[in-house]
Records
---
Amino acid sequence: MRVEGVVQGVGFRPFVYALATRLGLAGHVGNDSRGVFVEIEGPEAGVADFLASLTRDAPPLARIERVSATAITPNGAAGFSIAPSDPGGQRSALVSADSATCEDCLRELADPADRRFGYPFINCTNCGPRFTIVRDVPYDRPLTTMAGFPMCAECAAEYHDPADRRFHAQPVCCPACGPRLHLLDAAGDELPGEPLKQAARLLAEGHVLAVKGLGGYHLAVDAGSEPAAAALRARKHREDKPFAQMVPDIGGVRRLCALDALDEDALAGDAVDGTAVDLAAERLLTGRRRPIVLLPRRAGAPVARAVAPGSHHLGVMLPYTPLHHLLLREFGGPIVLTSGNSSDEPIAYTDDDALARLAGIADEFLAHDRPIHIRTDDSVVRPLRGREMLVRRARGYVPEPITMRTRFRRQVLACGAELKSTFCLGKDDHAFMSHHIGDLENFETFRSYTEGISHFQRLFDVIPQVVAHDLHPEYLSTKYALEREGVELTGVQHHHAHIASCLADNGEEGPVIGVAFDGLGYGPDGAIWGGEFLLADLTGFERAGHLATVPMPGGAAAIKQPWRMAAAYLDGAYPCGPPDGLDIQRRNAQRWHDVLTMARRGINAPVTSSAGRLFDAVAAILGVRDVINYEGQAAVELEQRADLSERAAYAAGIDEGDPLRIAGSDLIRAVADDLLAGVDSRVIAARFHLGVARVIVTTCMLLRERSGLRVVALSGGVFQNLLLLNQAAAGLEREDFRVLVHSQVPPNDGGISLGQAAVAAARDRLA
Ligand SMILES: [Zn+2]
Ligand SMILES: [Zn+2]
């Protein structure tokens, strides 16, 4: 038998050994370059049982992609053994993602009789650090950041015993031989006392604590303390982007969030009540990946205002390392656990860097001496129709590959976009998409990006021959691609990459009607695209429809100040001038005229078909937000404003040329008219969302008539908006379309690199 997938370093051989021994079968199991091989010999019924159990009962961290079995002549072997590994053979084995502490380890952690009682670094084959400690392959202790911790005799005995849960668990350790905690003051000097007890006491006293986690440092405060949360916000220079919280247990999450209201309809009128627990949300929270889960906030949830000011959602996660479990148990309530950085810098992950950069933010540091090899943020997800939608894909997911339907002919590097940057390597039938690296706008982030590419190339033994990149000439990722020597370059249009990403995410190749709605992307005509209907497969696309363009007065300034988009849209919607009495005009009276002049004369006012800018304009008109403090804020708050019990939808005209042009200004006029007529802004926000969903459906129906295509792929950052996504998907399905949405990678620019890789591979097959 041959077993392929993530089957090394996850306790697969001991599992096979135990299974075969229990069934009284003879033979052996071993690792090689392709995964795990097994020879089994015994009565037919036993062998059949063995085969059935092999995939059904596989260890929790294993991901089996293929099992193939061949009958061979019995050789009369006696007993079952684990064959020694061929040391050169493990290079193409898959490294697994970091995984939350398992139940067995938690039991030992809490057992005073266990030798790892209360030890903050307990782990086993089924849990613990992986990706964040691996320096090189083969995945073996000397090539991890555990190299500096030689195993004691007891740990070594467990490590070498095939019947033990810690057999070949590379990070295995104990209080006698493993890493240790330290509590440091802001100068880096060690504080006296038991670090965990002291740390919990400091949190309770309102201190800001830096805590070293799996992929970097976090900043922690008591989530119930207004002064502590406000201090953290002020010191981090973070205005109102919500902080994530770590909550001791699922009961604690229920006190904060509506786990049961994931059918968003049930949330009507903000009345959140009910007892039927949504299994999808609970599974996400308690699973081994442990992302931050964005959930509807309960009215009156006991959270300091400064944690998530004005937000109807909270980002919560459960403890995922033994250190977190112990700290939360000691503290006894939810804590803010936000990335250890100041404003837009990348998260600090080395001890020296953390002390240097976080000294002005954190009062004390709960640190330890196990190095982090690669900076990795927490992942962020939203529950979606019983599944998950990734907003940020990082710790717990990476570096697990996406399995491609068709193999890569040559090895590929896809360089991604600019914001929420990731890259992706393609080899055989695997796409290895990187963790979220961040916005490539400062040196430190760009260095993470280039170092990340080198690290992944080494880890997965990839030497790219084809390099894919965005068409935007100013993206640092594009410039990086153009500087790679001795490779074949292929440029992939931004929204084509979004649609290709959605196809690859679903194991499909098209052709489809692709709806790519996002903030901005470079169009081949040099214009700024972002509200696109593409007839696309993996190799190419035709732009079949788009939002009618509007000027962006002030260029980048119009992104930061949504009221400027409102001004430009209102100007187009009312040729004789917008009606009197709109509050937005009064609020921005000083610059209104200048901005309109810019828009009309096209001075520093590039035109765009961006759907993101349309949402911005509506948010500003409704007074939700004139100026944003973080990317996408206006649209996020507009979604939260919508009254989910509303059923009416605004209509938008479609100019049936080729390409089709959708009149976003019709929606703007409906919004402004209703506002002036005194309609509640929550009702207007809902009618706008439903109107966008409806025009998506209508446009797709027109394109089906023209093209005969009956499958629609929805991608782009705007589809992180679940109200829009659910309405559009449901409307399309009612019209007999098959709808593809994302599940393994984010719909935002974080998923672009996968799409670029898929396009590069498809073009390479044509060549
Ligand atoms: Zn464990
Ligand atoms: Zn030990």
---
Amino acid sequence: MTEYFEVHERDGAARLGELRLADPLTTPALADPVVEDAGSLWAAERAIPDGDEATLTVLPHRAFPAGTRDEVRESFRVDHPDVDFPAAAVVDVAGARDVGTDAYLLSDAAGFIGHGEAFRDAIVAAKASLPADAALFLSGVATPRNVATLAAAGVDLVDGTLARAKGLEGRYLTADAAHFLEDLAELPCACPACATPRSEFTRTDCAEHNVNALQAELRRVRERIRAGRLRDYLEGQARHEGWLTATLREFDDQWGYLEERTPILRDAEITAASAETLDRVEIKRFADRVTTRYRNRFSEQPLVLVPCSATKPYSDSQSHRQFHDAIEWRGHTVSMTSPIGVVPQELETTYPAQHYDAVVTGDWSEEEIGFVAEVLRRYLTRNDGYSRVIAHVPEDGYREICERVEADPAIDVPFEYTCVDHPTTDESLGELNAALGGEPAYSKREREHNTVRAIADYLIGDGAGDELFGSIRTTGRYPKLQVRTDDATGGRDGEPGEQLATMVPQYGTLSFTLAGARRWVESDAPTKQVAIDGFVPRGSVLAPGILDADGTIRVGDEVVIEGPKAFAVGRAEMSGPEMATSTRGVAVEVRHVEER
Ligand SMILES: [Zn+2]
């Protein structure tokens, strides 16, 4: 049970936490373990009162013989009647296990820093063995250049020992380089140490600068985590050192570790600035869910492929209004886009479909063409009921993608191309309109119902849309739809039925009511359930009150909360595995609750 560390925000595996010292420390942060003499791990932050009553069980990890490697070597713990200190256990990766302390210092960090695969394996293994709500501490390895990567992997605490030592050796560190001090004509920094004139700048000043630079980079990292945008930064930052670039890719290959820790929705925009954007969890997850959970329900209409627009959601853009006027509800519109892949019209508001910004448009790389073609191929393999595909796409990457998929022997639906030059010219739009001649139009009601079902598929799983919302009414105006039962049980005669859920336009998700939650629990769709103790939650459910949580729950998911005294519905603030192993923090924000 940790007492002094609590995670407040998450951005993938990176966390913004609070270490409750005399002056609370927001992590990821620098926390020098002053282990020489009788200082404690946290001695730099908080002095021990005079007198010798304090029993300091403090041993530097370096002091331990190699033969004890499989053991938890020692915990930094202070036993004193007037002082409460957090405790940290020094462990190596192989010996990492929960011993009930606030922080875990990995003693073998120096051995895996500098190697992408070894670093990833060590962090993933250590995190799997340690409680989710304890701080992970790497000592003697942080530099201004690597600390963003360390934080992104899930490291909460680092120290300044390496930065200081490098400075004393004459290495001047910045977020993008490690210079030889004597090579620098000017100091590219404005910290207090660097205010010293260049000619008088010593190695001691250099050591001080290095620690300042590390602190500044940690501030940047914390701000990025607050904004949910550490990844965007990392895609650029990781290029400054080979092993950091390798680490980014190694973690992307380890889908499960980052996926479990990545929210299913958030406000932050994704900036598609590099090839690595295609490997982000949010992008891969959307493509995965569209091709394994989503199912097209417009069975009579052809598929109309159109290019994406810069304006989001797409249907608000000038070009998509023009497509819409030509299609007149006679085709199922799916937008093609990099880096998302394909976006069926029902999911145009669903995160991250309206939360990304492509820096380069109209200029497709081979990776982008390959990625979008693969998603489209998988989409058509699953949704194989279309009579034909009308590709209303311009001549560049879009056309090449369509031709590649059309040529795939496993795809037997015929493709037609209606774009003469540019997709929005009168001639092109006329061709599109003519190609749809004779096709039946679907109703607004059908579109709204299918939107709700598609979002349920996406959120909950294959078939969930039909299980939960096979028979519904919708009220309100798209995209602020309200989902109701298709009878008058909840209202008087002639009025819409009981409300089950509301569509949330900014994330393209659903918020369930208690009636919706009950219908969900009673259905055959997979439920995201949180089992709680015998209390009635008000406002939020804290981690200690949770008995069990479904392992598939991700931050942002709708969850049903059940206990002996309450039935409730809310939104997850932690992943299921984190709920099950945490002893602190808000696990679920409760929306509706009912006493039992
Ligand atoms: Zn400086």
---
Amino acid sequence: MTVEIYDTTLRDGSQQVGLDLTVSDKLQVAAALDALGVDVVEGGWPGSNPKDAEFFARASELPWRHATLAAFGATRRPGRNVDDDGDLATLLAANTPIVTLVGKAWTLHVDEALRTTREENLEMVADSVAFFRREGRRVVFDAEHFFDGYAADRGYALAVLAAAAEAGADTLALCDTNGGTLPDDIAVIVREIIAAAGGDAGGRPAPRIGVHCHNDSACAVANSLVAIGAGATHVQGAANGYGERCGNADLFAIIAGLELKRGHELLPAGGLSALATTARQIAEVVNQPFEPRQPYVGSSAFATKAGLHASAIARRPDAYSHVDPRSVGNRSQVLVSELAGRSNVLVKAAELGLDLESGLATAVLEEIKAAEHRGYAFEAADASFELLVRRVADRRGAAQTPAWFELEGYRVVIEKSDGTDRSEAIVRLLLGEQRVVAVGEGVGPVHALDQALRKALAELYPELASIHLVDYKVRILDGRDATKAVTRVMLTSADHEGEWTTVGVSDDIVTASWEALADGISYGLLRAGADALVPAPA
Ligand SMILES: [Zn+2]
């Protein structure tokens, strides 16, 4: 049986603190997951909020090429009939092919949270599953707190699974709801459940056994992988490991691990190489910073700093990374640093598709060393590095990079009155023969400059509309002479395809910010292939 990939980003994942999705966000995330090729997308809990109900009403707007949609809800309430339980009716009205029902599997929760009898809980499970089976839906049963329940009262936890299976649930997901179970225990228990869950004499096939893991002991991905190794054929997780507390299992790391290291075919052909882009795209839609160290997909996942190793990495990339970064759509990134020798610069330039002949490489290296001495750092500022290489190459006549705008000057006014900060910036640009002047307002001088620059360029470069700022960091270097210290600004910009970082350095924070800002926009226009209005140097 092939392993079923079940995504719960839009339900469990969206419980993460600070993650607040609109219906439009949810539709975009669902479309990205479907395009990647996961098997099931759980869209939400229609009984819990009107936003989720609206999502299901609009889900048919999506093309749905691969995934099947599931709606989530709880078993009927104690002492009620399934036919007069409003939440079940709402769940039915979501009209999804799959209904995922969560039920209690831990006696502590039956006694203390549900405050009903253990017998009644078993009937709630059976009645609710049977209700949706009668309506022709496929039912996945999520056994909540299963592993804790199994430890506390094994017989009862098994009785809950049996009640769901006998009523027609074809998948039993064992949930490590508190996220505290360790991999060796998961492996043993999953094996025991699979051995016990054979089909019955009436010809009902054995249910599919799955897991739903949380990361509270940093084992969510490991637990999911060992469960599959033990025979589970259904795995639940969330994009980028989103979820409450420490998160759900990171579905992307699970998929990459199973495909690359265990030979499973989970995504449609070519799907795996879209993993890094999908991870980044979803982070952008849900407005979360993308973790550079995220396994497989993060921008630093295959990055090496050691200058000594760069030439060896160039010769044998497989000696320094656990998988080929290209297999998941990522790339090995060699960080530029003062310690690095020529080979590092050459490797980095080759990564960027720039061919540096030997004289040029030496010139670039000298420029980098001089810049680093002034306070620049190119390790995380790819875009500034590329622009630097291009400028050096332009000066030597080895390349012709156009300029999109030239700064004639700017003026910034900072105002504080009645406790509010307001800044105004006037930016004067030259674009070939044209002179453009624009005014921007913002909450601080850098924001005002950004607004003015965008206003000046918006009509001339429509590509700018998809470029936005995602991060702005300021670092004071050598703070001994506090107000005269050098300021380094790192600025990250993004478009639909990815992110890039630029760096600016000055003893004036506004000048440093302008430099990072202007480079960030220039680089974005370069990526977008915008036609430059300033002629390239002759
Ligand atoms: Zn959960």
